[in-house]
Amino acid sequence: MPPGGENGWVEGIPLCDNRAVTTALNSLTIEIRTSEERQAGGVSRMGAAVHPMIDGRDIVAEAFDPGPGHAPERLLSAKGPLRAGDAPHEVELAEAECTWGCCGALCVTVRREGDQVVWGGWRDRNGPPPALPDFRFDARAYDAEVARAEADHSWEWPARTTARLLRDWLRARPGLLERWQFQISQISSWKRDEIDVLLFHPHRPTASDEPWLQFRSVLAVTDEDPSVQATRLGVELTEHDPRDHAVLCGGSADFARALGFAWPPPRG
After folding, report:
1. pLDDT above 50 for 38
2. What is the distance between the alpha carbons of residues 76 and 34, in angstroms, rounded to a whole number?
3. Which of its termini does the chain have fewer beta carbons within 10 Å around, N or C?
4. What is the pTM of this model?
């Protein structure tokens, strides 16, 4: 029997039994929430945002008021930024609706430590850091949840599905746009019956001062099967020079002059 009797106490001090103290791990569920906002003229704008739920807490809504979480295409693409790799990396979870330079953006550093994944190093890109602790997840459960969310497209409306399939179709055939000196900027849907296609010309922006411009096409979506429709739209988009049907929408006056285009871009 230990000193102090069965309870193992000596003068009111518990004896150490050398057993490791374990810390309860956090749980992560990734939700994707869609929204529909009625705008001027009765036009609806659709939206989708990623909401990481940690132990049932909506971390983005709790810690960052200026704007919504980023879109699934940004955070949950194949091998996307939420995956925990060998090296720590920072992930921007949400940005102010104006810009991060105005009202900030919520960022977290994701790192893998043995059999755990840690979210820590919280910061606001243009403000005081949020009062959030480090969160620790079982690595296998974390990896499984991120993979599940990446593969989940059940939240999509038909035009968003067609946009995703069109984006995949074009990325699998980069030469079709590159022959016209164009590269994909963004392909998505913000309305129930339209797809927005943004393209860079002659290349995406780089750290150098080489000129670039951005062009936009708006594609109508029908009730045709999304996979069939994506292939048809891809062929239509690439069989002719995009400059014949796309509208200049971004870049700069100097870049436009260097590439032989009028500036400013047309409005509307």
Report:
1. yes
2. 15
3. C
4. 0.82
